[in-house]
Amino acid sequence: MDNARFADLLASGCSALGVTVGEDVGPRLQRLMAELLKWNAKVNLTAITAPEEVLEKHFLDSLAVLPEVTGATTLLDLGAGAGFPGLPLKLVMPTLGVTLVDAVGKKVAFIKAAAASLGLTGVRGLHARAEGKPETEGIPRAQVLIARAFMDLPDWLGLAPAYVEEGGRVVAMLGKAQPDAELQARAAERNLRVVSARSYRLPFSGAERQVAVFAKG
Ligand code: SAM
């Protein structure tokens, strides 16, 4: 995809999602895409390889949750895979401290290489398995904990609170929208409350997604 088409699709996608990104973000996302596709030719990082799909399903979907992350100073992305949503969010929020954790070493190797290639500081890739014991796992707590396509919601809400600082929040990016009553019930089971929940559609395919935010108490 040439630069102009990438810029057009990014602008129209962001506009459809209601998010704003700086002018420097497009070229950096293009570089991230080039790294991802280069690595993916040798190492299986993602099944999504068509450039327009990478832009929509990885980059724009990651940026769709900017409203839920805005204001945070630290972000922990558990089960980040090839860096989603943490890497695109970092590109838009340069002062955010981001830790991306995955249990698969080659994915973490990619995250580290991509961050270095983009000249990002304040990004840490961590090869670890999250099982609810951050101290022994060496995983730092953060103000905002996020995951996309990591676990089903009840398991995620059981695991997540251990990784959040006091007063912080847990963000769940869900592939399939859950009714409000379901979110409330799953939160209550874990002594959490629903701070917000909204559905959105990806701008080109129209695929439905949901983002829900939880806090303790
Ligand atoms: N969040 C990325 C995305 O949306 O593109 C990756 C999603 S992928 C379906 C789930 C990822 O979670 C995989 O990369 C897997 O290696 C990782 N994973 C699974 N269980 C894990 C655990 N207990 N701790 C850390 N990573 C885990």
TrEMBL record:
<comment type="similarity">
    <text>Belongs to the methyltransferase superfamily. RNA methyltransferase RsmG family.</text>
</comment>
<dbReference type="GO" id="GO:0005829">
    <property type="term" value="C:cytosol"/>
</dbReference>
<dbReference type="Pfam" id="PF02527">
    <property type="entry name" value="GidB"/>
</dbReference>
<feature type="binding site">
    <location>
        <position position="148"/>
    </location>
    <ligand>
        <name>S-adenosyl-L-methionine</name>
    </ligand>
</feature>
<feature type="binding site">
    <location>
        <begin position="130"/>
        <end position="131"/>
    </location>
    <ligand>
        <name>S-adenosyl-L-methionine</name>
    </ligand>
</feature>
<keyword id="KW-0698">rRNA processing</keyword>
<feature type="binding site">
    <location>
        <position position="84"/>
    </location>
    <ligand>
        <name>S-adenosyl-L-methionine</name>
    </ligand>
</feature>
<feature type="binding site">
    <location>
        <position position="79"/>
    </location>
    <ligand>
        <name>S-adenosyl-L-methionine</name>
    </ligand>
</feature>
<keyword id="KW-0949">S-adenosyl-L-methionine</keyword>
<dbReference type="GO" id="GO:0070043">
    <property type="term" value="F:rRNA (guanine-N7-)-methyltransferase activity"/>
</dbReference>
<keyword id="KW-0963">Cytoplasm</keyword>
<keyword id="KW-0808">Transferase</keyword>
<keyword id="KW-0489">Methyltransferase</keyword>
<protein>
    <recommendedName>
        <fullName>Ribosomal RNA small subunit methyltransferase G</fullName>
        <ecNumber>2.1.1.-</ecNumber>
    </recommendedName>
</protein>
<dbReference type="InterPro" id="IPR003682">
    <property type="entry name" value="rRNA_ssu_MeTfrase_G"/>
</dbReference>
<comment type="function">
    <text>Specifically methylates the N7 position of a guanine in 16S rRNA.</text>
</comment>
<dbReference type="InterPro" id="IPR029063">
    <property type="entry name" value="SAM-dependent_MTases_sf"/>
</dbReference>
